Amino acid sequence: MSLLKPTQTIGLIALSNGLSVQQKPTLDRLEQTLEEMGLSTVRPPSLFAKESVYHASDKERAKMLMDFYKNPDIRAIFDVSGGDLANGVLSYLDYEWMSQHPKPFFGYSDLSVVLNALYTKTGQSSYLYQIRHLVGTFADAQQGQFKASLFEQEHALFTFPFDWIQGQKMEGVVIGGNIRCFLKLAGTAYWPSFKGKILLLEAYSGDVAKMATYLNQYKQLGVFEEINGLILGHFTEMQKKSFQPDIVTLVRQIVENPSLPMIKTDAIGHGADAKCMVIGGQYNFKEKEMRYEDGCNR
Question: How many CB atoms lie within 10 A of CB 52?
Fold first, then answer.
């Protein structure tokens, strides 16, 4: 079954930092593009920052999301924000309702906390993807993949090229996302079990010292001893500035486990050409092939 159909309504929300007014033209273009695809859009009372980085309180933003979940006309929800504030809504969400009334939820970066909290508290999968890519640098390609994958059950948006760092196969449910933001769940009720999982890590900003700090915290939490494999997405600043040691070398040094399967892909992360990763989705990687639970393959 397709995730969306033309003529349906989707909700656009900002659970992290409020958008700047300079982003309004981008949002307007996005809504126009979605209308051209046949989709209608609904916005909550506010999206744009009013006080510092806030456009609404944590409780108010959580209510906006629950209102979307409780609105039967809204088929899917796309977060258009990022930043630092998303974990503030977690205490105010009704996970029982969300479990009984599931809807596709999309977001990236700081929304890693919401995606993984949804999986931990409800068992539902959600989507690490930023819908603003539809009007970004690679708009034509993104729009084509979006329509084919969400309307027509093709798999272009959900499959991606990768290279093996070590190992040749791994299988499990994918959790994780942004390396910094995901760590905000550590020690909370929203931190998922890592046993038998595949961990995805990617980052926008951060130098060697910051990446080493985050990786060592994961190590000290025992994460690398429990997972079935590791996916390294795109580490934007690290790769753009060619920091040394590079992210792959740094990970291998800190993880210290040559038997842990690892792959590297630049297709998952903050780039305007980024693909979509299903958090809570079952994946199988073998040699040069990947398979997602709905049967998509490359």
Answer: 9
What is the residue type of 191?
A: W
Q: How far apart are CA 271 and CA 15, in angstroms?
A: 20
Residue type, 228: N
pLDDT tens digits along 238-263:
999 999 999 999 999 999 999 999 99
Cα–Cα–Cα angle for 293, 294, 295, nearest 5°?
90
Pick the CATH number of 9-150 from 3.40.190.10, 3.40.50.2000, 3.40.50.2300, 3.40.50.10740: 3.40.50.10740
For residue 229, what are the β-bridge partners? Answer: 198
User: 18: Cβ–Cβ under 8 A, 6 or more apart, which residues?
Assistant: 46, 47, 48, 49, 50, 53, 54, 55, 56, 81
The closest of 236, 233, 262, 244 to 208, measured between CA atoms, is 244
Helices (DSSP H) in the chain: which residue ranges? 24-36, 58-70, 95-100, 112-122, 139-150, 179-182, 208-220, 223-226, 236-240, 247-255
Asked if the domains at 9-150 and 163-292 fall in one CATH topology, the answer is: no
- Could you tell me the fold of the domain covering 163-292? Glucose Oxidase; domain 1 (3.50.30)
pLDDT confidence of 153, banded at 50, 70, 90? Answer: confident
